[in-house]
Amino acid sequence: MSLNDATTRIEHVFSGTFAHSTQSAALEILENCVLGVDDEGKIAFIEKDPDVDSLSKIWGFDASERIKLGQYEFLMPGMVDTHIHASQYSYTGTALDLPLLDWLNTYTFPVEAQYKDLDFANNVYTKVVRRTLKNGTTTACYFATIHTDASLLLGELADKFGQRALVGKVCMDCNSAVPQYKESPDQCKAETDRFIIELLKKEYSNVKPVVTPRFAPSCSASLLSELGEIANNNKLHIQLIPVWETTPQSHISENKQEVDLVKTLFQDCKSYTDVYLKHNLLTNKTVMAHGCHLTDEELKIFHERGSAIAHCPNSNISICSGMLNVRNVLNHKVKLGLGTDVAGGYSPSILDAIRRALDTSKALTIQDPEHQTLTFEEVFRLATLGGSEALSLDDQIGNFVVGKDFDALRVNVCVPGGPIDLFPGEGPKAVLEKFLNLGDDRNITEVYVAGRRVVPFLNT
Distance (Å, rounded) from C-alpha 138 to C-alpha 132? Predict the structure, then answer.
């Protein structure tokens, strides 16, 4: 499991236990392994039961400088948040007393309107990037706001702190509840173009723009069509910027009131899914949040189009939207990852999303004993490799495979003052399960993105 090159220089070498997912296994635990990361941040080799001295000669590293993981330490892939509203972070943990549409009008839109103030944006966006990184989110798919400059600032901060990020300037031209928080269709198109062009010109290695219609009820049909053109690279022909592979993101079928509203607004469409399909926004790179009330016919379309769903179980329960049947989504072979959906979800941690996903699955089993409950191994996969698949990044990240970027968490289950107690005879699988169910940011002692250690923070 190596790919040697005479010009490759090894930057980091770790030895010990590694936990990840593969295409064939929801969980694979590799004990007594050595993993090397090259100076470009990619996994150069991973060897089980190695002769370290021979390996060091082949790869040219000092065996005495390798990082030896402790008995209750392990490396796992970085976690992927496939849906988070960075602009809602300031009121996380509050304002959870209303259903979706009332919640947006009462809390969300008035707060998001404040992001024209770049000082306000800088304060919130700095905190959300740092907080999610500390909690092990190495990749985040962010919604920002309609404000181009603030959205560019979010990309700048993600790059500064080393987080891999997809950033979306929100597009919406319909908002009767908070009329000052919207753009005209022409403004929205022009500012979306400017956002994409300016962010790509920065040439950040791990931060890219995404096309982001907020959701169908906040967008006119003409705006959705314009965004579909951009998402298919038909209306953005700009020289001197890197090649850009488009990821569209939005929301779908979050709660029943919203689904009914979409039927009223788009009467020529057969379903909520059909709205995005007709406007060329359902592609093999699309990720749609929630999907609680998608029909089997709609899931079939998702599979055929190669589109993904971001499962946000905390938010689904916290604002009483519904419960996604993940087993049914997986049975339809639809790509699926986990999202925190801050601030509809009250936690910025994917560990919480893992726990709430398991709780939701168990609640569905209580309702229907024939329902096949998700295992912790399956949800671990959703948090890592599944998330990378949902964001079409699985060729770069998601597990420990030679040639992929080294996005990883160093976990210490016995960190002093931590939340976990261990007992004799507990092996690495039990240790991992305890971390997923009981652990928090105290247990995540180091975070790496593309081979760079980004936690503990170098920037204050």
Answer: 8
What is residue 458's predicted lDDT score, i.e. its pLDDT? 83
Cα 350 versus chain centre, distance: 9
Model pTM?
Answer: 0.97
Q: Residue written as tokens 């593969």?
A: 22
299, 305 in Cβ contact below 8 A? Answer: no
Nearest to 436 by CA among 358, 371, 374, 372: 358
Asked if 142 contacts 166 with a C-beta cutoff of 8 angstroms, the reply is yes
Cis before residue 456, ω within 30 degrees of 0? Answer: yes
Tokens of 173: 């031209």
Give the C-alpha separation, 78 to 274, whole Å.
34
Residue 193 burial (10 A CB sphere; 0-12, 13-18, 19+):
middle
Q: pLDDT digits over 407-423, tens only?
A: 999 999 999 999 999 99
299-350 pLDDT per residue, tens = 999 999 999 999 999 999 999 999 999 999 999 999 999 999 999 999 999 9
Report the 10 Å Cβ neighbour count for 233: 12
Q: Give dist(CA 271, CA 125) in Å, integer.
A: 35
Q: Which amino acid is at 20?
A: H
Say if CB 45 and CB 39 are below 8 A apart: no
- Identify the CA nearest to 118 among candidates 151, 159, 93, 78: 151
Q: In whole angstroms, what is the distance from residue 412 CA to residue 35 CA?
A: 18
Measured in whole angstroms, the distance separating CA 208 from the mean position of its chain's CA atoms is: 13
Q: CA-CA distances (angstroms) from residue 62 to 10, 32, 57?
A: 10, 18, 8
Minimal CA–CA distance to 75: which of 436, 389, 447, 356? 447
Q: Which of 232, 340, 236 is nearest to 286 (CA)?
A: 232
- Residue in 126, 135, 96 with CA at minimum distance from that of residue 315: 96
Tokens of 451: 């081979």
Render 401-445 in DSSP notation, one character per residue. Answer: -TTSB--EEEEETT-TT-S----TT--HHHHHHHHHHH--GGGEE
Residue for token digits 């609640």? 363
d(CA 6, CA 18): 27
Q: Is the pLDDT of residue 136 over 90?
A: yes
